[in-house]
Every structure is written in structure tokens, then in C-alpha cells.
Amino acid sequence: xxxxxxxxxVWQRSMELVVEIYRLSDLFPxxxxxxxxxxxxxxxxxxxxxxxxGRKRSTRKDxxxxxxxxxxxxxxLETQIEISKRLNFxxxxxxxxxxxxxxxxxxxxxxxxxxxxx
Length: 118
Description:
de novo design (two linked rop proteins)
């Protein structure tokens, strides 16, 4: 039984993703601290934040809307991770690990969006 947003697997995975993005972005060039590092961190933090806020809303429709926002932030982060890979800010191994966690989160969000629609 789900009593709190903290019980949601998607929230737990997205929190792991935030930690991974912070760890990973610490390795980026210092010149990117106000560039892609800042954008990636904001997008990552937005995912569990919107899940939590949406879960506390009073209606299913509101919750779904916040899950859609979290999904959009995940898509934004997906692009930023790809850019980071192409600019060689991250190694392939790190990219694959982070991308897999992000993909898992995106799939769960997508399923929640579909489930909450019905």
C-alpha cells in the first residue's frame, strides 16, 4: 500500500538518479558549472520533486499533470546526458550506467501517465 510518495519506486529511482547526476557532473570541467552542470542538476531534481508534489495534490488529474512534468524533465535530462557524452564530459561506461537508470525512470513515469489517465 502506498502511503507516501516515498513509497513509490519511481520516486526512489529518481532520487538515485539525482545522486548519480550530482556525482557525475562533479567530474565535468569547472567552466560548465553554470552551463550544462546547472541545467542537468535542475532537471534531475525536478523529477522526484514533481512526483512528490503531484502525489500530495488532491486529485488524480493533478497528480497525472505533475507526472507529465516529471516526464518532461526526464526527457530534458536525457538530452543533456547525450550532449555530455558527445562533448566527452563523461566516459561511455558512466553514460551507460546513468542512461539505464534514466530510461528505467522514464518507463515508470510513462506507465504512471497511462495508468492515471484511466
